[in-house]
Amino acid sequence: MKSFIPREVESLWTLFTAPIVWAVHFVVCYGAVAVYCAKTAMLGFEFSTMRIILGGFTVVALGMIVLAAYLAWRQWGFGSGDPPHDEATRQDRALFQGFATLLLSGLSFVAVVYVAIPLIFIAECQR
Amino acid sequence: MMVELGNFTPEERAAQEERLRKAWKTPGGWRYWTSVNNSEIGLWYGVTAFAFMLFAGLLGLLMRVQLSVPNNDFISADLYNQAFTLHGTVMMFLFAVPIFEAVAIFLLPSMLGARELPFPRLSAFGFWSFLLGGVFVCGSIFFNAAPNAGWFMYPPLATDKEYAGIGADIWLLGLSFIEVASIAAAVEIIVGIMKCRAPGMRINMMPMFAWYLLIVAGMILFAFPPLIAGDILFEMERMFDWPFFDASRGGDPLLWQHLFWIFGHPEVYIIFLPAIALMAMIVPTFSQRPIVGYSWIVLAAVGTGFLSFGLWVHHMFTTGLPQISLAFFSAASEAVAIPTGVQIFVFIATMLAGRVIFSVPMLFGAGGIIIFVIGGLTGVMVALAPFDWQAHDTYFVVAHLHYVLIGGMFFPIVAGIYYYFPFVTGKKLSDAWGKVSFWLMFTGFNVAFFPMHFSGLRGMPRRVFTYPEDIGWDWFNLISTVGAFIFAAGVATFVIDIFRPKPKPKERNLNPWNSGTLEWTNDPSEDWGMRSVPIISSRYPLWDQPNLQADIEAGRYYLPDAKSGKRETLVTSVLDAEPIQCLRVGGSSYVTIIAALALGGVFIALTYHWWIPTIISAIITFIAILWWLWNGTGPIPESAEVDVGLGQTLPVYVSGPASVGWWAMFITMVGDGTAFASLIFGYFFYWTVHDDFTAGASGPGEPWPMVALVLFVIAWLLTIVARQLNEKGVVGCRIALVAGIGVTFAACLAGVAGPYLHGMDPTSNVYPAIVWIIAIWTVTHGAVGIVMQAYCLARSFAGRMTAQYDQDIRNVALYWHFMAFTAVVTFAVIGLFPMVSA
């Protein structure tokens, strides 16, 4: 069976995957709620529905961050070596990238959870 | 990377040095000012920014004198308004951001092991723009014409011509000009860090400073353009009465607040991160060990960079937005404390793990961190919406922001100046003076700003020019004023120490602090930066690579010579820093000064509505920039490859994604795209604030926008075809370019036809105004697209663009990718969205 997990890539951009997921999640939450609160009459559904949609999106975002974290963990050799990864080799450079990406995934995960918390506690637009 | 280092006889070395000296020579006499070398530009930039800081500091003192006692009439209310507006504006725009650009331009090449950043003339252009814009903005107060509506220029106060006068225009246009300089610096810094590192300096070996600066420059690309978009809307309202922020005609002042703070909050981190980056260089040196948690610092820098974009509404907690929205921003504002905390703990861990030498730079650094942590904690307080509702617009916020900025930025900058002074001049500043200066500053700062927390909690609003007695503010204000003068005495001590004559050091010591990073191999008395470009195998090469200094100076590494007589530096690959190109960079030139002065002329003439000088200056700017590009960029080299030493030859000319120019275009267009996105945000913002955002006015219709969309896509395809045909021969390429020019011209006409033929009056309501501005934005980009196509055509005819040497057409095609995206979004939105929303 062909694995659905992406192959390892050589790029600086992978470092930013998890923070980008955070940014997209943040913008979607803010944008969706801003439009909903301004156009409630036009949209014609309850705020609780909005909360469920965004809750679902949060789960998707967290899933993507976990995937990014897994890929980072793999790039980090599944934790086989300890930092600082400061050798002048291609391998240490890749391990550093993996470790830094893993750390960023952790931060992004927490930050997405933070942003989702208001959806649990606030049940209406409250202007 | 195993290579055999070069070996030269003393005669050969002397001859090499002679040629290098000639190629990198800084011109003498008044031509000195045409220099574009990073060491000159960095120094001028830094000195200018510092001078602006002293000026703004004096304005701060004026304010403190006025507030020292109740009912004071030391200065008038109006002058006070000008003073606080200019104080904030100058500190943020003319000191905090430019000083980091200065430090980056000065230090980065040496830290990275490059001779020069890839676009030295662009740096020079940025500096001259900054100088001119800065003098213009600062000078206005001497004509009683300074901006007076607060450094964030909120409408409707700042759009009120009765109140805000010409000052608001000076602010808008002067600063737009400086924003151009910042984006230029961002391009330079990103490309420099990604592509101009010494061979072997893989991304896990980069100095911490470079990591931070890479993130900061990226942030500039996304933070400054929304403000530029806001400035455009604002100035269109002030100049032509387009009602973007006028509520009576459908506008909304809150849009300005959004655009300003989408810029303004990341700006705080744009200021803070480079200062912390200096600390990340200083702390390891004075702990005499590598930094603990290199990867964690990367986490902190990248994490802060991203999260800082989710905070802007915490400046708008009291504007009546839905509380659910406030809560998102409150949550993100709390989250950003995590990477910031990581940063601080990394420093503490490094100090604990090493043996700390409490030198003057460390004093300032540690003092700054203490102050910053206090400011950070009050920041966590004001990030909570209910607390902020109480503290908003009071002196509590004034205290908070000064703790954050002075602790997080000013103290580390002073630390950096003490640390790098020997790198710049070869001489150290005095330890004794430094300690006196530190204790004056540290004490004075806390005496001045700590009481502001209390006066704020007692209800003192910011920006009042005086207050009645016996409401509990008197003593706090008097103490603050005394503290401000103690602080100023500390700054004065520091300035005197800089300018006081210092004896020449008895022996040559390039690395007085025993630092480990590459920049300390440079001899400040030579203009070439790196004598030869070394191969790096450690994060702290001076500690770990024996003989490095001697080998660099003996020319045993790359580019030990300048046989071509041109300024050359190495370009290496992004991840592993393998040498890929010998890049020739521009030398001293007048064109940067002329272009900057002319562009300045455009902005200044616009301020006073002098239309003819505006047009003349714009034409001069246009010609100067074309001349600069034509003569200065992408010349066809005398041979395809050159010897770079160590038995290696590298190409001189590369094009496409491998070239620095392609990346510069890409980065610029990302910033440009962000400004465009901000305008589109404005369009949808107006849609959300009204039930019918068209207010019954006619739209541009569907046919013309769709015609424009299709024509722009065809023009884009023709440009791509031109690029492909150019590889086969000149004729097909030229035909495609000519066709492209014609189609683009038609596309531009079709773009404005919709709003024009439907009689949309931009002064009547915000809907026609926003449609017009988005259409004009896109058509203007179309016009630039025509210039680029024509430029390629001319280059092809002049034999400067061939199948092999095709940078121009490749970069233009890249521009057109963005152009096509802009056009599709523009015309789909203005043409189709009214139908969807109806």
Would you summarize the structure shown here?
The complex is a heterodimer of chains A (127) and B (838). Chain A is an all-alpha fold.
Describe the structure.
The complex is a heterodimer of chains A (127) and B (838). Chain A is mainly α. Chain A is built from 4 helices and no strands. The radius of gyration of chain A is 19 Å and the shape is elongated. Chain B has 838 residues and is mainly α. Chain B starts with 9 loop residues before the first helix and ends with a helix. Chains A and B meet through α1 and α4 of A and α8 and α9 of B.
Descriptive keywords:
heterodimer, A: 127 residues, mainly alpha, B: 838 residues, Four Helix Bundle (Hemerythrin (Met), subunit A), two-stranded antiparallel ribbon, 66% helix
Structural class of chain A: mainly alpha
Termini separation of chain A comes to 53 Å
Q: Biggest interface and which pair forms it?
A: A-B, 48 and 46 residues
Helical content of chain A (DSSP H or I, runs of 4+): 55-70%
| Assembly state (oligomeric) | heterodimer
Tally of contiguous helical segments of chain A: 4
Shape of chain B: globular
Topology pattern of chain B, helix = H, strand = E: HHHHHHHHHHHHHHHHHEEHHEEHHHHH
* DSSP strand content of chain A: under 5%
What structural class do the secondary elements of chain B suggest?
Answer: mainly alpha
CATH architectural label of the domain at 659-837 in chain B:
Up-down Bundle
Number of helices of chain B: 24
The low-confidence runs of chain A, each spanning 5 or more residues with pLDDT under 50, are none
Shape of chain A: elongated
Largest sheet of chain A: none
Give the tally of β-strands of chain B. 4
Fourth-level CATH superfamily of the domain at 659-837 in chain B: Cytochrome c oxidase, subunit III, four-helix bundle
Query: What order do the SSEs of chain A take from the amino end to the carboxyl end, as H and E?
Result: HHHH
Q: Please give the share of residues in helix of chain B.
A: 55-70%
Q: Radius of gyration of chain A from the CA trace?
A: 19 Å
| Intertermini distance of chain B | 65 Å
